Amino acid sequence: MLNVQNVGFSIEGAQLLQSASVRFEAGSVTALIGPNGAGKSTLLRIMAGLLPATQGQVVCNGAPLQQLTLAQRARLMAYMPQDVPPFPPMPVREVASLGRLPYGESSAQALHHPAVAQALAEVGLQDLAERPASQLSGGERARLMLARALAVQAPILLADEPVAALDPAHALAVMQVFCKLAAQGTCVVVVLHDLLLATRFCKTLVLMQQGHVRHIIPPARLTDDMVRQTYGVTTRRVENAVVPWDLCTAQPN
Ligand SMILES: Nc1ncnc2c1ncn2[C@@H]1O[C@H](COP(=O)(O)OP(=O)(O)OP(=O)(O)O)[C@@H](O)[C@H]1O
């Protein structure tokens, strides 16, 4: 569905992404994992068409991304950014309804579209729907950004650290929503630092380090050595999921 072909990105002499090639399939949840500064957000932003690749291309359903119009892209892909901006004092429901903008609906239609109510319920914000968004806590703001993306009901969902600010219950609920969407055919790509959630819920892991895609593997093939070499931490296992456990005495490669 989304084919990243030999994509690189450099700026002011710094090579942030090196010849990345990854295919993201419909009906699956893929995690982009890797340490701070590995290039995960850069790759996600290029996939969303928000940053132009300086090498290679992203092909979406057979068409290079730059051949799609902005309107086509907006309906095809929903994007949740890593940084949540301060919201104006408009109601939570209205912020979520901005996800309907790509469809040219009136604000009233968008506000009452079932996708908006569903998105708010999926992130557990239905009871705060009429509250000014400016009053939300950090985790609630992150959930609202996700609700706005979910309200698009796009076949591709790109989310940058959607659970980083969430408590365990909401983080689990959001991962379950991603799995449900994947089961309905959505291509979900999510940047995660939580290896437990990544290995438990995602079908594929794309392990990045220093601008390189190091491994594209199912969670079962994520070895302790890979984690040690990439993050400099030891691991424990809970069922089949990986938990970072201790700092290695040796520096990571
Ligand atoms: N304009 C720039 N010039 C030079 N380096 C930059 C520029 N913008 C970003 N970088 C660097 O590019 C690297 C990749 O950034 P990116 O945001 O993609 O990392 P990330 O894997 O998402 O990290 P994190 O987990 O911390 O969010 C970082 O080391 C960052 O400092």
UniProtKB/TrEMBL annotation:
Which residue ranges does the record assign to the ABC transporter domain? 2-235
Query: Mind telling me which SUPFAM superfamilies this protein's record contains?
Result: P-loop containing nucleoside triphosphate hydrolases (SSF52540)
* GO molecular function term, any single one: ATP hydrolysis activity
State the Gene3D superfamilies in the record: P-loop containing nucleotide triphosphate hydrolases (3.40.50.300)
UniProt keyword list: ATP-binding, Nucleotide-binding, Translocase, Transport
What is this protein for, i.e. what is its function? Answer: Part of the ABC transporter complex HmuTUV involved in hemin import. Responsible for energy coupling to the transport system.
Protein name, per record:
ABC transporter ATP-binding protein
Q: Which organism is it from?
A: Acetobacter oryzoeni
